[in-house]
Amino acid sequence: MKLAREDKRNKDVEPLKEIKTQKEYFNDPVLGPPAPWLDTRATEETMDHLWNNINHSVPGDRIKKKLAGNILKSYFIQDKDNWLYENVLKSMVEYLWLRESWSHYFDIAVAKQRPVPEFRLHELWVNFQKQHEFNPPHFHEAAYSFVVFMKIPTHWKEQHALPMNVDSNAPCASDFQFLMGQGDQNPVRTITFPLGPEDKGRMLFFPSWLVHAVYPFYGTEEERITVSGNIYLQESTQHKAERLLYGKDSFQTQK
Ligand SMILES: [Fe+2]
Question: Which pLDDT tens digit goes with each residue over 118-142?
Fold first, then answer.
């Protein structure tokens, strides 16, 4: 399919290239859809806050049967004074909420008919992942979720060079991965994040429906430490009234 004809009048104008496959479309920075996640980096202040929260966690406060991770040590932690939500997460929530649909953007930012709904960080936990442990593909039953890589003890280059990986056409030891459906008759698209020690402080923030997985790492007794959380929509009185009045529910999972 030709998207544009070559401009014969101006030799300096680059004609748009042909987009032949759905994969090329998704990877095109101009024509493709925006990634549904945010890839950012926590500040030193945020990292200090998270380490402080981790150090004050109760090791016995284990998340039983609540997480998909095949990981022995996962503990709830508290966001002291709601600092993480107010200073870091709230702006990300509002950005993705406005970007999620035209009606959200129009009602809130253009017509100013209603405020951004209230959200709440309801679950926050730390994973101490050991070698061989992993997180199978899963999603979270919330509105938005995130992961902060606190410590990555391995480098993806070494992990992908292990004997079992080196001849694979898809080496993925130690990687984080998103999996996105592309509709009927199209394969699931995987977006992989190879990780190393330099990713300390990297944060991926995403809608909770987005399926993700973590592959195991090998060859060290050091733990890989990540902090994750779930953010839920709080149904305000006004929204509840609208829902009862109009009989429609435009909201996501509530808790
Ligand atoms: Fe998860």
Answer: 999 999 999 999 999 989 999 999 9
